[in-house]
Amino acid sequence: MRRILVLFSIVLEMSVLKASNFFVDGLGYTFIKDGEVEVTDQCFDTVGYSGKLVIPAYVPYGGGMHKVTRIGDNAIHSCHSLTSVTIPETVVAIGDFAFWNCTNLDSVVIPNSVLTIARGAFQCCIKLKSVVLSENLVVLGDYVFEDCHSLPSLTIPKSVKYIGEYLTYGCERLKDISIPASVVEIGRNVWEGVRISYVADNVADFCRLNAFNSSVMKGAIAGDSISYIIDGKEIETIVIPDTVKTIAEAAFTYCHSLKSVTILKGVETIKAGAFFRCKALTNLVLPESVKSVAYNAFSWTSISYICCYASIPPEAGLIFRYGDVDYYEAVHLYVPCESLEAYQQHSEWGSFQNIMCVEDYRQTARKLFYDNQVIILRHDATKCDMAGRVLP
Fold first, then answer.
1. What is the mean pLDDT of residues 370-385?
2. What are φ and ψ of residue 70, in 5° steps?
3. How confident is the model over 231-237, as a mean pLDDT?
4. What angle do CA 114, 117, 118 make, to 5 degrees?
5. DSSP string for 282-298
6. Which of 4, 85, 160, 319 is least surrounded by CB atoms within 10 angstroms?
7. Where do the H-state alpha helices sit in the chain?
8. For 34, which DSSP code?
9. CA distance to 14, 47, 114, 218, 227, per residue, from 93 (Å)
């Protein structure tokens, strides 16, 4: 009988802890597990936190001290008089819509203990001007800063791997954002409708549909395994580093303003539609590492020159399938001299009517003239520049 009573008391205590809500100094808490609590949803328009809110690291309750490890879902939403919040180093996660619609919140510092910021955490904080993120943050969820109209800049720490969709959607004052090389995935419409002028220092390995839609970003450095940057209408320059092996299907589709693509040696595969409808793109340099170029890769572009350094003609199929000109007649293809015949006999590359020999770019410099444009190849050059600039 005594053993049964002891077991009953333990079960009862655990159930009370699990379901218990309590208040300390005006803040509501809920037990997550024994010894740990989260700030809970207790804030409404009529009973809200105001001014400068300081969340404690530990709170007393039931004769013990309990660690605050999470700011719960909707915990401090719609607190219109709240201007700033201090989050303790014990917190590891910020829940869904935790500070949603705190319309006068103007600054927040996320401590280095925080690993995850869930969806909509600061959505509609229209006066938020300053955000310092945790240096150990891994996940930035969907809509985290959506409609933060006053936010001018955002620095994403080097620890972040995942950026959710619509992260800064509608942040019309956002001009500068820094994305580290650690990021492996960027959600769709992340910067739609914002006025980002530059993104550094890469654009992740995988960018989902419309990641840059309607932004005015001018330049980008692509990540280590670029997949999709669809409809980045204002992107003008792209640098694809030598760590990239594959430019995936539709990677730069509808980047109408894209004028310059620098593909460094390392890329082996360019998949279907990679540069489809990049109407401002006028020339292209393919490094010697390229082994295959897929269907429609350059359709509906303005390419008039291709300089391909691959000694063995890359596998290719209808790379200019569609367009408003006969690309195979209009485009001038420059290839290594020793491979000229191989290109001419190739089922795809042989369709080009203007295939010309370019001496090995490691040899003595030479000039090629065509329609008053000059191409200067230096003996130690690593790429061909059709605009006539002298290459180092």
1. 34
2. -155, 145
3. 61
4. 145
5. -EEEE-TT--EE-TTTT
6. 4
7. 2-19, 327-330, 340-344
8. T
9. 23, 24, 5, 34, 29
The rounded percent of the chain whose pLDDT value lies above 90 is 38
**Mean pLDDT, rounded, of the chain:** 76
Phi/psi for 52 (5° steps) reads -100, 115
> Which tokens go with 56?
């404690």
Residue with tokens 């001496």: 359
Please give the DSSP secondary-structure letter assigned to residue 337: G
Q: Count the helices and strands in the chain (H runs, E runs).
A: 3, 31
CA–CA dist 284, 303 (Å, integer): 7
- The amino acid at residue 390 is V
**Per-residue burial over 348-381, b = 16 or more CB atoms within 10 Å of its CB, e = otherwise:** bbbbbeebbebbebeeeeeebeeeeeebebeeee
Phi, psi (deg, nearest 5) at residue 167: -50, -50
pTM of the predicted model as reported, rounded to 2 decimal places: 0.58
100-116 pLDDT, tens digit per residue, is 999 999 999 999 999 99
Q: Which among 37, 103, 114, 57 has a CA at the least distance from the CA of 76?
A: 103
Give me the domains of the chain, ranges plus CATH numbers: 236-392 (3.80.10.10)
Q: How far is CA 116 from CA 99, 136, 364, in A?
A: 14, 9, 55
Contact 100, 82 (CB under 8 A): no
Per-residue pLDDT reduced to its tens digit, 185-203: 777 666 665 554 444 444 4
HSE-CB at 142 with a 13 A cutoff on CA atoms is 6
Widest pairwise Cα distance in the chain? 102
Tokens of 221: 């450095």
- Which amino acid, one-letter code, is at 250? A
Q: Mapping DSSP to helix (H, G, I), strand (E, B) and coil, where does residue 339 land?
A: helix
CA–CA distance, 168 with 193 (Å, rounded to integer): 9
pLDDT in tens, 37-96: 999 976 544 456 778 999 999 999 999 999 999 999 999 999 999 999 999 999 999 999
- Report residue 39: phi and psi, to 5°: -70, 130
127 to 142, 151, 173: CA distances (angstroms): 19, 8, 11
**Whether the Cβ atoms of residue 155 and residue 178 lie closer than 8 Å to each other:** yes
